[in-house]
Fold:
Amino acid sequence: MSYGLLKGKRGIIFGALDENSIAWKTAERVHEEGGSFVLTNAPIAMRMGTINQLADKTGATVIPADATSLEDLEKLISESVEILGGKIDFVLHSIGMSVNVRKGRAYTDQKYDWTAKGWDVSAGSFHKVMQVLYKQDAMNEWGSIVALSYMAAQRVFPDYNDMADNKAFLESIARSFGYFFGRDKKVRVNTISQSPTPTTAGKGVKGFDGFISYAEKMSPLGNASALDCANYTVSLFSDLTRKVTLQNLFHDGGFSNMGVSDAVMQAFEEQED
Structure:
């Protein structure tokens, strides 16, 4: 169901890889709510995914950009303003990568040039995106910038590896840059701490299926899906949340406030029997 929440609004969506992506689902929902946008991803990710199908479906333009490159971002944002016919109202940063995870390196045995690459892609890129938007004065007042996070930024999930540090860094950047963007441009900046979601990237984390099953049993409302997250993101892009900023917003069916659930206790009791 569409409510016209984003009618006339313009934006940029980073990170749509395939139909499993939260960014993909968000683009579909933004389109349904009347928003127009540019889609972007790193050139290598675009070769791996099917972003052009999404562009055809939503009438979006695709601009390849390495989000760690200031030159690419400057070009992306200036071209997006021109293509969309005005300043930007919303941005989704849905980017994350850990070479250590991909290569199976333990958290206690990191290869640090891989670590640096991971935080640059996963968190440093968020600062770079906002810095370019800020310097180009490319955002409309009361615009909204959202990045996707995970609760490993606050709690230990051993196999999430250095991505946990990347997400903690991401959330700090959102608060720190969000202050300046709010004060100077009336733009809000938030992160969404989403349930474990079976995206193409998420499935690369060791033990991910067990992760999802455990979270499902712990959460009173169950895990939030990629589509659920897209709907929540749309609400943050809309004018209904104008005074929400500097927040890390848990969108996880209640998992983040749970100690233990009946379902989890029952599973352990059955093992003991």
